[in-house]
Amino acid sequence: ISELHISDMSYLSGLKVLRLSHNRIWCLDFRIFKFNQNLEYLDLSHNQLQNISCHLITSLKHLDLSFNDFDVLPICKEFVNLTQLHFLGLSATKLRQLDLLPIAHLHLNYILLDLERYYANETESLPILNTKTLDLVFPP
Questions:
Q1: What is residue 70's three-state secondary structure?
Q2: What is the pLDDT of residues 106-135, one digit of tens each?
Q3: For the chain, how far is it from start to end, CA to CA, in angstroms?
Q4: Fewer Cβ atoms within 10 Å of its own Cβ: the N or the C terminal residue of the chain?
Q5: What are phi and psi of 25, to 5 degrees?
Q6: A Gene Ontology CC term for this entry (predicted)?
Q7: Domain limits for position 50
């Protein structure tokens, strides 16, 4: 799978779990999930995502965007509305402290930060994140 369209998702109004990991998805507009307001678990890990739109589903409890091709963390101001989120997986080649601010207040059980392709040209420290488990994946 390389792309998803609203027509792929619109008839799945009761969808709660969607695992799309290990595909070739390169771009995703979250507006395709506007008919999936009960979606709680979304796994988009191990794809080729370079950017996403910020129209997130507030019912999400699990969102995995790790092991993708993001330059910077795919976090936007809409993440503050993900109050039910327990798991968040992210990846990036660049990491800035400000990128994590929209999720700093969330009470997450688990954060996975895939920094395997991380390129450190400056030393940045992580802000304090409200999580029970922080899993960092660094380059080998």
A1: coil
A2: 899 999 999 887 766 555 667 778 899 999
A3: 28
A4: C
A5: -70, 125
A6: Toll-like receptor 2-Toll-like receptor 6 protein complex
A7: 6-137
